Amino acid sequence: LEAVFQAKRLAGKRVLVTAGPTFEPIDPVRGITNLSSGKMGYAIAQAAWEAGAHVTLVSGPTALDQPYGVQRQAVQTAQQMHDAVMAQVASHDIFIAVAAVADWRVANASDQKIKKTTDSDTPQLQFAQNPDILASVAALPQAPYCVGFAAESENLLEYGAAKRLKKNIPLLVGNIGHNTFGKDENELVLFDANGHQALAKADKQTLARQLVDEIAARV
Ligand code: CTP
Ligand code: CA
């Protein structure tokens, strides 16, 4: 019901959101992923729709239902997420990168299941760096308004401000990884050119609505 009474502050805007973890295969039955549940990104996609936006969600593997009104494309790897975002971003006004994208993929992934051979023989994984989706979007000549997320484990104020500058984006949202991954509540710190501002601990849907208001006020 709250959605009905909320001001449609993003009416006419097109918003692209990434959410969830990525999954990087080791072989056809194994892979590397992370503890992101997708809840924060899905809550933001829902809140943007409530605010009147047309919302596209590119999601890594999660156990979550498609948010009402939102168009979802499911992907597995960081490369697939990158390709899906780059194919669609041109028609969007706002890009919100909430996904916990794997920084590295397995360079020598096996086409067949790796078999356990002898007691001493363990697989040797090599890694290659994945494309930085947010940096790729921010570098486009007609870049949308870009919002990044940072899950840190320490020094949030210092790392958050530095990461916003490094990624060259107007708004970066910081949180503490072990306080958010898989949880229903979170607390956020917003970093922009004017400094930082906290959004106090609340459930993710409440925080998502507050964040969407903050974004709408800036675009
Ligand atoms: N991101 C992305 N593509 C990547 C890695 C990160 O789009 N390959 C986005 C995330 O969705 C997030 C932001 O970049 O919005 C910051 O991610 P983070 O992992 O905190 O930053 P990194 O630059 O990868 O730095 P770190 O070494 O701390 O992981
Ligand atoms: Ca990273």
From TrEMBL:
Residues 10-217 form the DNA/pantothenate metabolism flavoprotein C-terminal domain. One of its GO terms (molecular function) is phosphopantothenoylcysteine decarboxylase activity. It catalyses: N-[(R)-4-phosphopantothenoyl]-L-cysteine + H(+) = (R)-4'-phosphopantetheine + CO2; (R)-4'-phosphopantothenate + L-cysteine + CTP = N-[(R)-4-phosphopantothenoyl]-L-cysteine + CMP + diphosphate + H(+). Its EC number is 4.1.1.36, 6.3.2.5. Transmembrane segments: none annotated. Residues 15-219 are annotated as: Phosphopantothenate--cysteine ligase. Binds 1 FMN per subunit. Pathway: Cofactor biosynthesis; coenzyme A biosynthesis; CoA from (R)-pantothenate: step 2/5; Cofactor biosynthesis; coenzyme A biosynthesis; CoA from (R)-pantothenate: step 3/5. CTP binds at D103, K113, P131, D132, I133, L134, F149, K163, K167. Keywords: Decarboxylase, Flavoprotein, FMN, Ligase, Lyase, Magnesium, Metal-binding, Multifunctional enzyme. It comes from the Bacteria. Its cofactor is Mg(2+); FMN. Catalyzes two steps in the biosynthesis of coenzyme A. In the first step cysteine is conjugated to 4'-phosphopantothenate to form 4-phosphopantothenoylcysteine, in the latter compound is decarboxylated to form 4'-phosphopantotheine. Catalyzes two sequential steps in the biosynthesis of coenzyme A. In the first step cysteine is conjugated to 4'-phosphopantothenate to form 4-phosphopantothenoylcysteine. In the second step the latter compound is decarboxylated to form 4'-phosphopantotheine. In the C-terminal section; belongs to the PPC synthetase family. In the N-terminal section; belongs to the HFCD (homo-oligomeric flavin containing Cys decarboxylase) superfamily. This is Coenzyme A biosynthesis bifunctional protein CoaBC. The gene is coaBC. The chain holds residues 180 to 398 of 398 of the full protein.
